[in-house]
Every structure is written in C-alpha cells, then in structure tokens.
Design a protein that fits this description.
The complex is a heterodimer of chains A (313) and B (422). Chain A contains 14 helices and 2 strands, in the order ααααααββαααααααα. By secondary structure, chain A is mostly helical. A two-stranded antiparallel ribbon of chain A has the order 1-2. In chain A, helix 1 runs parallel beside helix 3. Chain A is globular, with a radius of gyration of 20 Å. Chain B has 422 residues and is an alpha/beta fold. In chain B, helix 4 packs parallel to helix 6, helix 5 packs across helix 8 and helix 11 packs across helix 14. Among the domains of chain B are: 160 residues, NADH-ubiquinone oxidoreductase 51kDa subunit (Rossmann fold, 3-Layer(aba) Sandwich); 63 residues, no CATH class. Chain B has a 6-stranded mixed beta sheet with strand order 1-14-13-17-15-16, sandwiched between helices. A 4-stranded antiparallel beta sheet of chain B has the order 2-8-7-4, with no helix packed on it. A 4-stranded parallel beta sheet of chain B has the order 11-10-9-12, with helices on both faces. Chain B is built from 14 helices and 17 strands. Classes of the chains: A mainly alpha (313), B alpha/beta (422).
C-alpha cells in the first residue's frame, strides 16, 4: 500500500508559465530600445540605465531585508522598473538622479503598497514624475542625437509647444530615433520590435496600445493645429514617449483594468489625456501623467466593466 | 476555453481490454449524487453477479449491484475516491463461475417497452451519469416538461482520458441503439452528438446514422462541460440558475448511453465501467473494462511494470479529478480515469502574489473574474464573492491552470461558493 502520496485540490496540471518568465521576457523586449538609445546618445545612456537598474534592485533588497520579507528581486519586476525609469530620463543627467528616482520608484511607488501586485501606480512613472517635479532642469535638458556630446537639444514636442519652427526632422528620422529625447523613447523601430515580442508571446494584448495610440492620433489630428482637422497626428505618434508608454507602461498588469472592455476604456482615456496635455496643457509631453491618472481610475473602471457571466443578460 | 496539452497518446490507440475478475471488491454504498443506500445483504451471505445488494427508498439515488459472484465478507468503512471514506460492502470471489447471463431482451420486447418501463429498467440497473457527475439517470429520463433536443456528450475534453473515445469507436452500434432508445423514450426528434476534432475516428464512426447529427467541436477545454456543450452546439446559454431541461435539452454522456443500452438490451445492471489507466509512470497504459469496486492498486499492477513510483494518483482527469491518499480506493460508477503522476509532474508549485495579468479572466469559460473572487475570498468578504458571481463557477480549473503566480484560485472560489449557499 502506498501512503506517501501527494494530495491536493484540482487541477493537477499547470501551464508552463510563471511571473519571472513573464517579467524577464519583458526585460528582453526592452533591450532593443536600450541598444538604440546607446547608439543614438552614446555610452552615457548605458550608464544611466545600468545605474537605475542596480539602484532599483538594491532598493528592493534593502526594503525587503528591513521589513523581513522574502527577497523577490529574482522575479525581474524591479529590473523592469529600473530600466523603464532610465528610459524616461535624458541621457545627460548626473548619475545620482537615476539613483534617487529608482529609490523613490521602488520604495514609495511599489514597496510601501505591499510590493509586487499591490501598487496602484506604475512605479517607474512615479519615479519619473517625482524627478520631474524636483529637478525639472535636469529632466528637460536633452542631448542632441548622434553628436555624443552635451549639446543641449529640445525635443520635437517641446519645440512644437514653444511655437518654434522645427529643425528639419523627417518622419523617418523620428521613426529611427534621430531626435532629442529620453533614452528609451526615441527609437520607434526598436520599441516596436520589443512590442512585437510581447504581443507574440501573448503577454500584452492590443487593447490598450491600439486604443491609446489611435485616440491620441485622432485627437491631435482634430485639435493639434490652429485649424480643426489639420493636426500632424503622425508627428504626435512618432515623437515623445507615446510608443514607449503605450506598449510598455500603459500595459503594466498591476495598475490597469482586467477585462478587454476595461482596457479599451483605459486606452482611450490615456489617449485623450495625453493629447489634451500636449495641446493645451503646461507640458510639451503628457504620457506619464496620462497613464498615472488612468492608473488611479483603474479600480473604478474594473467595477463597471465586469464580463458578462454565462447565462446572464 | 483553453487549449491543453492532451497527452492522450498514452492510451488513445489501445483497444478496450477486459480487466480480469478481481478476487475482492469494495462497493461503497454511495456511488451517486443523492441519498446513501442501505445494504440488503449481511456478512456471510452469498451473492450472485448482478444481484442488487444495496438500495434505498428515495427519489434521488441509484441501487448498487454485486460486481462479482461471491460472499459478503464485511460491511465496513473503506476509502472512497470522492468522499474520502464511506461505508462499503466487501465481496470475496468464491470461485463460482462468473459468466452470468442476464435476461436478454428481444427486439419485439424492446419495441413494446413504454417510457415508464425504460425508466424502471434504468433505475433498477443503478445507472448514473458516467461523465463524472454521477447524477442518477432515471431522473434525467423523467423530465418535468416535453424536451426537444438530445445532446450526446462525446467531447471527453480532459487530457489523458480516452475511455469515451475508445467506446465511441468500438461500440458505435450499441451507442446508437442507446441514443435511439432514449430519444424514443422522451419523444425527442432533434439528436446531436458532440465530438471534439481530436477524435477523427469517432467522428467517422458516427457519421451517417439517420436522425443523429454529428457536431464536430474544437478540442478546447472544457468543451465537454454541459454549459459549453449546449452553447457550442445550439448557440444558446442556459439562463443562470436554470437547468438544461428549461431549454428543452437533455445532455447524456456516451458512457451513460452505453450503460442504458446494456441495461435495456442485455438486462445488465451497472457492474462495470471503462477506465483509462494512464500516465508517464506506467509501462502499459490501457483502456480497461473494470468491475466496480476493484481497488486501483490492482489496475496499477495490471498496467505495469512501473517506470517510476507515482507521487500522485488521481481518479478522473488532471483538470477535475481527485487526488487519492491511498491505492486501496476502489473504482466506482463515476471513475472514468486513473492517472499516475511522477514526482516531477506532481511537484507542488509555490504561490506568488496576483499581478492582475488577467489570464484567468480571459480563460474563464463562464465569464468570471477569478482573481477578484480569490482576493475577496481570502479576506472572507462573502457578499463581494457573491456579487462577483462565485456561485456560477463550474470548477473547471482553468484559472489555476493558467495563473502565472500559481495561485489557488479554484480552491478559494469553491470556498466562496459554499459560503454563498449558507
């Protein structure tokens, strides 16, 4: 007679899937954009990214040691936060800035809520807006692309905001990332390669990115110029942080709605807010604030977008 | 609905084999949904194969029959595959010839049977739903209103299991007779048999019978669930809180239909059933025709030798089956599969935090949000679990299966269901 059998509730099989597997795949999908950033802005971009990554991981370890919790850095989520924070910074910032941002992201943006799965806002964006509010000068001094020195350059969106005539930048330049901006946001091609990996693996769905980008495009087309229906919607898609935000930050599981219906509303909301901030707001770019505001609305959206249960109307 | 790794290759091409008559059987007094039966024999009595040995005066029950000829050696508590432990009648084979011939019925006799006669035969034969729910079949044959559709469930969507599939291929004519009998008994004209597209042989076997339409279904889990089957064949959903009866629909599993055929045509009570004995630990997985009450260790020995010692033994399929604590437990009317898992396959997974990835939300075949019910259930917020529809859960296990954090979603939802009934 066998009496050392494992007894547990059904089901007894499990999909080959785990949180670390998802998170590390996201890390991999972020690599092309980082490589592009280093090519465009030089090695400074690499140092900023690595410093932010290490600071995020160490902050998580220290916080979990101090609060006597299980060390969870191997799940990869702190690495993602560090990378995403760095991707939202200009490459020329002093290296203490990504450290402060990463500590804030992990400690205040994530761990005080209870760690992975509990945070209300995207931690990387919390870190970014904290830095933006505290050291706006560093956060808005951008390096000229492919120059590898610290010649300051305005982002295309900032130039647009200030009513300056844009230096001649083609859509192709924008697509490839030949422009001033944050490390990880400039090369649309690299971002799309990463997004394709996540879509193929099924780790993100089209609902949020598609509605987000589409809404921004429509809104900026209608209201983006002095005359209605004359806005340069393609310019708005390709410049700024929209693609990075739409595929990698607005799709953060924890702080976004659960159902497809909810995700569509979330995407449209992000798109509207981004366009409104860009066109009429005080900042040239609105992706971070748009996503954070919709993060705050997520519990509310979830409540009103439940799926229809079988057999009910 | 999700696509699962089927693992049916272990046994899908193994023809049905008769398991030798065991020397001892343990027949639990409850093998059905409903009231527990009372023994009608006492220790020391000699019983014949097919003799009724336990019954009950109630509406929802099914009598129990001797699955071997022999002597009642004990009536005692014994491991039960569903309930943990239950009272069982123990029969010991006395070596008497076991080739009982039941009362065969001729075609003329069968044509003269009234619906009431058929129901009586089915009740007396102790037939229950053999897809796993084990609801007494005679009750389903006595609907409160006229039905118009009969759906035969040949989906067998659980991974590993192939018993129904083999039955459909090897006993096609018998099942067709059974289907026509049930349809005639209830005056039903519209008859479908739903078969998944991973069983081409069975689909072919059932094609071309007048009055029975084969519906080829996608091999997705839980295609064989009653609610999913009705939706995917008829395009209708059973309204919440209602039964298939309310739509004028009756669903019967192929194994149940075969049991009805045997009872009516051959006068044979439910004394044996088809069991898929399978898993990577076994050298010879098989589809066995097993006498009820046979301890599973006999089946394991028969399908051996073992490649490795099983770490987990499951009666049923891997998605909804029940893990057993002992190999002394017998096969009962609802046991369609016996699955052995090695230590690697059975390794318990560590639970992590919910990251709201919504894989469970997308996977749930009845449209629930399992992660939300789980969180509410863990905090004993029973009004919230009710609001989220915990009571509608069909316990298919997809939420647990897909969860990357390996959370015990189904267990906590089951708990919430129970609390919701209070």
């Amino acid at each position: 007679m066998r009496n050392n059998l494992i007894v547990s509730g059904s089901p007894h099989i499990h999909k080959q899937e785990s949180i670390p597997r998802i998170m590390w795949t996201v890390v991999i999908s972020l690599i092309p954009a980082g490589v592009a950033g280093v090519i465009i802005f030089g090695l400074d971009a690499l140092w900023v990214t690595l410093v932010a990554l290490v600071a995020a991981v160490l902050t998580e370890i220290i916080f979990e040691v101090l609060t006597k919790k299980k060390i969870t850095v191997m799940d990869g989520s702190a690495v993602i936060t560090g990378i995403l924070l760095a991707y939202n910074l200009p490459s020329g910032v002093p290296l203490w800035l990504p450290i402060v941002g990463a500590v804030f992201s992990i400690a205040i943006g994530k761990q005080v809520f209870g760690g992975l799965g509990q945070n209300i806002f995207n931690p990387a964006l919390i870190g970014r807006v904290f830095l933006m509010a505290s050291w706006p000068k560093y956060m808005t001094t951008f390096v000229k692309p492919l120059s590898y020195d610290t010649i300051a350059s305005a982002t295309p969106l900032a130039a647009l905001k200030e009513g300056k005539i844009l230096e001649h930048i083609s859509y192709l330049d924008l697509f490839l990332g030949k422009r001033g901006g944050c490390i990880g946001e400039v090369c649309i091609l690299a971002l799309l390669i990463g997004a394709a990996i996540l879509l193929y693996k099924g780790y993100i769905s089209w609902h949020i990115p598609a509605t987000y980008i589409f809404t921004t495009a429509v809104f900026t087309y209608i209201f983006g110029a002095k005359q209605l229906f004359h806005g340069d919607w393609l310019f708005h898609i390709l410049s700024g942080g929209l693609i990075l935000g739409a595929f990698f930050m607005a799709t953060d599981y924890v702080a976004t709605p659960l159902t497809a219906k909810g995700q569509l509303i979330f995407g449209v909301g992000c798109g509207l807010l981004t366009a409104i901030i860009r066109i009429w707001g005080g900042y040239p770019e609105g992706v971070s604030y748009a996503i954070l505001m919709m993060n705050a609305a997520t519990p509310f959206i979830d409540r009103y977008t439940k799926n229809r249960i079988y057999g009910t109307s | 609905m999700v696509k699962l790794t089927e693992n049916k290759h272990y046994s899908e091409n193994k023809a049905i084999e008769k398991f030798p008559v065991p020397s001892k059987v343990y027949l639990p007094l409850i093998q059905h949904l409903g009231k527990i039966c009372n023994p009608e024999v006492k220790v020391g009595d000699t019983v014949k194969l097919g003799q009724r040995i336990a019954s009950m005066q109630a509406n929802v029950y099914a009598p129990i029959h001797a699955s071997i000829s022999g002597v009642v050696s004990a009536i005692r508590d014994w491991p039960h595959p569903v309930l943990g432990r239950a009272k069982a009648i123990v029969l010991e084979n006395n070596g008497e010839l076991d080739e009982a011939v039941f009362g065969l019925r001729s075609r003329q006799e069968i044509n003269k049977l009234t619906p009431a006669d058929i129901r009586k035969i089915v009740l007396d034969a102790g037939i229950v739903g053999m897809g796993g729910a084990s609801f007494p079949t005679h009750i389903k044959l006595n609907p409160p209103k006229q039905l118009n559709t009969l759906i035969i469930n040949g989906a067998e969507c659980e991974p590993y299991l192939t018993a129904d599939s083999r039955l459909m291929v090897e006993k096609t004519a018998e099942i067709v007779e059974g289907v026509r009998l049930i349809a005639a008994c209830l005056g039903i004209k519209e008859v479908y048999i739903g078969i998944e597209d991973n069983k081409p042989e069975a689909i072919k076997a059932f094609s071309g019978f007048a009055g029975i339409e084969v519906k080829v279904l996608k091999s997705d889990y839980p295609q064989g669930g009653e609610k999913q089957l009705i939706q995917n064949i008829l395009g209708k959903q059973i309204p919440r809180g209602k039964l298939p009866f309310d739509l004028g629909v009756l669903v019967q599993n192929v194994a149940t239909v075969y049991a009805v055929y045997e009872a009516v045509f051959k006068g044979k009570p439910l004394i044996e059933r088809l069991v898929t004995v399978t898993g990577s630990c076994l050298e010879n997985p098989k589809n066995l025709l097993v006498r009820l009450g046979t301890p599973i260790k006999n089946l394991i020995d028969f399908c051996g030798p073992l490649k490795e010692e099983p770490a987990k033994i499951i009666i049923g399929g891997p998605m909804m089956g029940i893990a057993q604590y002992t190999d002394e437990v017998p096969i009962i009317k609802s046991s369609g599969g016996l699955l052995l898992m090695n230590a690697k396959e059975a390794k318990p997974l560590e639970e992590g935090p919910c990251i709201r990835c919504a894989a469970c939300v997308r996977g749930c075949p009845v449209g629930l949000m399992p992660c939300q019910i789980n969180l509410a259930s863990e905090r004993s917020l029973w009004s919230l679990t009710k609001e989220y529809g915990a009571g509608d859960c069909i316990e298919c296990g997809i939420c647990n299966y897909v969860c990357p954090a390996h959370r015990m979603l189904l267990q906590t939802i089951k708990r919430a269901k129970l609390e919701g009934l209070r």
